[in-house]
Amino acid sequence: MVVKAVRGRRRYVVYTVPPEAGRTEVLNALGGLAESMPDIRVITSFEGKAIVRCSPSEIGAVSEAMGANFPGSESLITSGTLRKIREIYPELRVAQKKKR
């Protein structure tokens, strides 16, 4: 079974945001888009960077919304995997839960 054929491809985009902006502020900034485009999700926002997941066709709309709500915001990198983004920006890595 091919999962990508069913759910579609995803892209993870890192944007610069104000350092005090948290995940909820970024989600509120994308509020109108998130309702009309269900694939949009804010993965994390930390230390002035936010990771947003969307489909490849939605990248332009997300970039416009981020620029409108956070002046000076720009896209730093676009990737198909979170692993690649976290290799380049290790500060965006989420601490893993300890296994017993």
Protein architecture, described:
This protein is of the alpha+beta class and 100 residues long. The chain has one domain. Helices cover 36% and strands 23% of the residues. It has helices at 3-7, 23-29, 31-36, 59-69, 82-88; strands at 11-16, 41-46, 49-54, 75-79. Strands 2-3-1-4 form a four-stranded antiparallel beta sheet, with helices on both faces. A hairpin with a 2-residue loop joins strand 2 (41-46) and strand 3. The radius of gyration is 14 Å and the shape is globular. The termini are far apart.
Determine the strand fraction and express it as a percent band: 15-25%
Low-confidence stretches: none
Please describe the biggest sheet, giving its number of strands, its sense, and whether it closes into a barrel.
4 strands, antiparallel
Kindly state the percentage of residues in helix.
25-40%
The total count of helices amounts to 5
Distance between the termini: 33 Å
**SSE succession:** HEHHEEHEH
The strand order across the widest sheet is 2-3-1-4
Globally, the shape reads globular
Give the number of domains: 1
Structural class call reads alpha+beta
Chain-averaged pLDDT = 86
What is the tally of beta strands? 4
Our Rg estimate from Cα atoms comes to 14 Å
Descriptive key words:
single chain, 100 residues, alpha+beta, 5 helices
Layout of secondary structure:
Layout: H1 3-7, E1 11-16, H2 23-29, H3 31-36, E2 41-46, E3 49-54, H4 59-69, E4 75-79, H5 82-88
Antiparallel strand pairs: 1-3, 1-4, 2-3
